[in-house]
Amino acid sequence: MRQRKFASISSAIAAMIMLLGVIAVSFGSVTAQQPPTATPNDPIWLAFDAARTALEEKLQQEIRYVKSYTYEEAEFQGGISSCKTLGEGEKPEFLFFGWRFIITLLNGAAYEVRTSFNYQIVVICDQVTVTTGEPTAATTPVDGLPAPVTGPVGPGGLEVGGQVTGLFPDAVTAMTNAGMRWVKFQINPGVAEGTATGFITEAKSKGFKILLSVVGDPAQVMNGTYQDDFAAYLGRLAKAGADAIEVWNEPNIEREWPAGQVSGGNYTVLLAKSFNAIKSNNSGTLVISGAPAPTGFFGTAGCTAQGCNDDVFYRQMAAAGAAQYMDCVGAHYNEGIVSPLVNSGDPRDNYPTRYYGTNLNRALANFPGKQACFTELGYLSGEDYGALPANFAWAGGTSVDEHAQWLGEAVGKARAEGNVRLLIVFNVNFSSFTDDPQAGYAIIRKNGSCPACAKIRASLQ
After folding, report:
1. Which of 51, 81, 134, 365 can pair with 93 through a Cys bridge, CB separation 3.0 to 4.6 Å?
2. Residue 134 domain-assigned (yes or no)
3. Which domain holds residue 264?
4. What is this structure's pTM?
5. Residue 81 DSSP SS3
6. Residue 399 near residue 383, CB atoms below 8 Å
7. Could you give the angle at the alpha carbon of 39 between the alpha carbons of 36 and 40, nearest 5°?
8. How far is Cα 94 from Cα 78, in angstroms, rounded to an integer?
9. pLDDT tens-digit series, residues 350-362
10. φ, ψ for residue 365 (rounded to 5)?
11. Sign of the CA dihedral 364, 367, 368, 373?
12. Do residues 433 and 382 lie in contact, with contact meaning Cβ atoms separated by under 8 Å?
């Protein structure tokens, strides 16, 4: 047998891996300016879907969650159908190259399914013909990390807040009506510390806890001295009273981290320094890891020079030891066009980041015992603004009523499941509706009303 490509995924918590579309990715050019997306036209995904469907038919059961799976591009000695006993009248398929999938179900049963490259021929073998072992992510620990100055805080009950452009009267009214207790500002170290501490003072004077999401200079972030200075800045914000700090933003993509150096391991070095600086100045400040951009844009390998898929990035972080340097796993979710209560039915495809539940699973799968902190969670509707820009046309069918309903449902689901510590709604009062239609995410709509406020409050009661 000649093996030409091999990839595998395994979860420490088996139920966290969703099989529907788990390798739904797109190849083609990778451009930092393009929004990370996943599309179901990748030949591996199409072959995998055919293999899954055939196995479901054979077993007469739906296969959604698995313990593990592998796939490889392989040569089949004796032909693709040589691994099974042919039935009466069934002819062998003389095809000698294709995809081999090894799928291990939650009950431990393993199946080998072979497909042609064009996925028109599918064969379920009588038994697994190769030895793979339990697949693991291609990640390694990071040497030389500092010992944490304290342990992470334990779990807590759900609290909700919103990201604002400023704590203007309409924003404060909307947030209060929604039952929000937190406000989020995103800043960078270029902001004068007096301005940053002013945000803290203002938030507390109006009865809110404050999350500061701090993003530095991507061109310098791999410089050790810059990392030390950045961490020290976060420490001063914690000392000034910040209730939570998110260390960077979307560090899995080239826009926010240097090309060729994107990895969860590299990010963990910054996270470790930041955690110690924050906790040394204020042990009560929550440290939230920088939420990756949810995406399958970077192919079946999981990473290119331009970035990494979020699930791969999380695995790299976990292998590097990130869990000891955060109180909460940072997560984003802002591409939904169906209710957060469902895990299927998106007309685009069934890639896991399309759905609230499977998107959250990607964040938590490698950090058992941790809760997530959604530092951005939003739904987009342009109903009251007009046509959405081409890059956001996927949300063209979402109404303002759905926008409000789904935000309420997301809060209710997070509260009921107990796996989310903080949920920041993106956003409260952004007003720009251009190529980046941020106003379409806002809970304060164009006419000044807030349909989502009552929905969110009801879900918190």
Report:
1. 81
2. no
3. 159-460
4. 0.72
5. coil
6. yes
7. 155
8. 8
9. 999 999 999 999 9
10. -55, -35
11. negative
12. yes
